[in-house]
Give the backbone structure.
Amino acid sequence: MRPKVSTPAHKTADFGELVCSNSLKSDAENTAPWLLKHELRRLGSLAMRAAETTRVPGGHALTVDRDVFAQEITRAIESEPRITVVREEVASIPDEGIVIVATGPLTSGALAEDIARKTGSDGLYFYDSISPIVDADTIDREIVFAASRYGKSLDGSDDYLNCPFTREEYGAFVDALLTAEPADAHIEEDRAIHKGKVPFFEACLPVEEIARRGRDTLRFGPMKPVGLDDPRTGRWPYAVVQLRQEDLRAGSYNLVGFQNYMKFPEQKRVFRMIPGLANAEFLRYGQIHRNTYINGPTLLNETLQLKSDRRVFFAGQISGVEGYVESIATGLLAGRAAVQFARGEQPRAVARETALGSLVHYITHADPKRYQPANIAFDLLPTLEEQTRRQFKHDKKARHAEVCRRAIEALAPYV
């Protein structure tokens, strides 16, 4: 629908605009996020190809220049002669034809209401927020130092900028976070923020919410200093804020894990207390927005079709996954299943042993009464048999490598 109708979070008319961060998570071999990306690469994912060509340094993570990434995807779609792009708001699911609903976390109100009517859903939702971005030229390099945790990155380089705190600086910073004024609600439902009843997604908590859980909680979360030697002292700082490169020219950095819902002037005041950011110019402030999703276990089958209307597929965050790569994954699977359905074939589910299959299995088999969007993790994949678990009891890396080996093997017939 963009640019005719926008959202509180999007800024462009491009497809694939990344609004939360520029990280597609770990690309270290034999991790769960790596496995999911590996499977997508095997299946020829457009988004994975775009990510490779727009990659920027990010330690073990696959991080991209978000603007160029979106431009690459937009160019590929608009230049495909068999795709017609129509830019207008869709207010209801069409009554005829095969439909994939992949409207993301910010599904427009009219369409969300139509989905609720047709599915009987009560419009489940949680809240998500995005991190600030600062101009690279306004970072004080006399204070901030470059390093990857324990010196580890995929290519051996120092991929993060690190802002080191003393105990006193950390205490003052936490005090400022706890007293900062929250932003005004954009929509009526958001007023729950001010009543302490916000159903945040646990893996993407606003920094203020983390601080409220205890004064040292941040030091064991997004501000943990372990494995980062400050060259000025030769020791780990008391706490640290990491900055991650945003674009190919290294002209901007985002504050890793610092999604928040403070008013913009408050963000400027509080985040300039971070050592090295006293004169920082903010290119984007953090925000909070509503994420809409359906109750997948109740409504969807294992090929992401509505049980009540099999011509309708759901994919992306609205299906009940959390994360860019997870959304990419369900989009690819829904697209392939829709092609099979259009041919009059029975759409095929991916093997449960794969990361793709396990992600969809979670969407369609989780407890519907306690359903919450999920990232890919090894606990979603099938458990190894007892004998194998005993064999790898004291070697988690080997155990994860075995799970990945089995997943890749199970994907081969589908490929």
